[in-house]
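Milestone 3.1: sequence recovery, worked example.
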């Protein structure tokens, strides 16, 4: 922002499905998504930061007493999961069980909404670390999964995209920063 003060940033939030739809419709230039990107349809830069999966739990809920949670700790707990996670292999692979073996009580598209359900006592939300601000006053805490489960973030854009000047400058600067 300091180097290019005239560039304006417009941020919208959503899961990967929503973000990729926005890219497809030409409504956004770039999207940040977790997990692999279809390189036949998009170009992408891997952001060199791994995010850790875990559960968001109420501090007085049993999984909160542990430093990390295992599949055995969660298999019978009421779970809140993102709709996006339900469509992929993440849950069955980590739990070692089919989705029908899990006690999924609700879904969300944004982790903030999941955190509200956790705060209301609906269960534990499977999510990425640092998505929800958990200050000392928060009744919630985050516990990482064990075995550890991580995801990469990608900046994606439509293949053969012709960018406006501002987007071209942004991408060039981002690539330079990632090289450093």
């Amino acid at each position: 922002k300091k180097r290019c003060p005239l560039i304006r940033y417009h941020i919208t939030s959503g899961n990967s499905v929503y973000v990729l739809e926005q890219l497809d419709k030409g409504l956004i230039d770039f999207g940040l998504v977790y997990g692999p990107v279809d390189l036949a349809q998009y170009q992408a830069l891997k952001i060199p930061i791994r995010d850790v999966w875990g559960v968001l739990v109420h501090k007085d809920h049993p999984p909160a007493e542990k430093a990390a949670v295992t599949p055995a700790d969660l298999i019978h707990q009421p779970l809140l999961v993102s709709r996006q996670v339900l469509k992929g292999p993440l849950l069955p692979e980590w739990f070692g069980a089919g989705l029908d073996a899990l006690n999924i009580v609700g879904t969300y598209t944004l982790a903030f909404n999941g955190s509200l359900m956790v705060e209301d006592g609906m269960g534990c939300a499977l999510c990425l670390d640092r998505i929800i601000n958990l200050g000392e006053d928060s009744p919630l805490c985050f516990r990482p999964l064990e075995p550890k489960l991580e995801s990469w973030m990608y900046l994606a854009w439509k293949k053969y995209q012709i960018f406006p000047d501002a987007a071209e400058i942004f991408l060039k600067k981002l690539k330079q920063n990632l090289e450093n």
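The chain has a mean pLDDT of 91. The radius of gyration is 18 Å.
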